[in-house]
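Project channel, design review

CF: Before we commit to the Denitromonas halophila constructs, I'd like one complete example in the thread so the newer folks can see what an input/output pair looks like. Taking Precorrin-8X methylmutase.
RD: sounds good, go ahead.
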Amino acid sequence: MTANTVTEQLTAAGRAIEHDSFSIIDAEVGPHAYSSNQWPVVRRMIHANADFDFNGLTDFHPQATDAALAAILGGASRIVADVEMICVGLSASRLAHFGLATHQFISDDDVIAQARAEDTTRAVQAMRKAHRLGLLDGAIVGIGNAPTALIEVVRLIRDEGARPALVVGMPVGFVSAAESKNLMAELTEVPWIVIRGRKGGSTLVVAAIHALLGLAEARQREAA
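CF: and here is what came back for Precorrin-8X methylmutase:
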């Protein structure tokens, strides 16, 4: 069976360490109810934080992985993030292979000015800017830092007809983090992946997207 090449570590030593880590996780994780497409996402998240709690805390819309693969392989998608850390953390070569660009607006002058004028957060205004620019529709939206960004994405979906291909909603924190993810998981209009509760973070969004890119490369090879 041919292995992935684009979405793997670049050296044999790096690949061996990563594969050994995955084998340890598989051996120690215990039972889980994730599908064959969902488990690689959860496993990579566990790998990113050495935290087995993500077995159980991670929740998937039924169409989440299929929607992600369609978006990645369709050639017309993009990644919109709440913070720069996600964009920096994603592998440039893996994104380039699929023609994916990243976008984030958290530090734009107009976003900061509008947040001050409306007494909202920069994260809210950044999501609104992405929507105004037409970037949310068909995008993979990654939220790892700001619960207010995820709450705004939910509002944009419900009230303004935004239609991301997938929302990876994993903001971390103590104020509205769990609640924002519960709101996202109530939606049926758009597929989502969320972490229930307070845990999350940009690292986990990056891990989840990298796992989805790996699944996409495997699907590419099957179709070749």
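RD: helpful, thanks. The first helix runs from residue 12 to 28.
CF: Strands lie at 58-60, 79-81, 102-103, 140-143, 166-169, 192-195.
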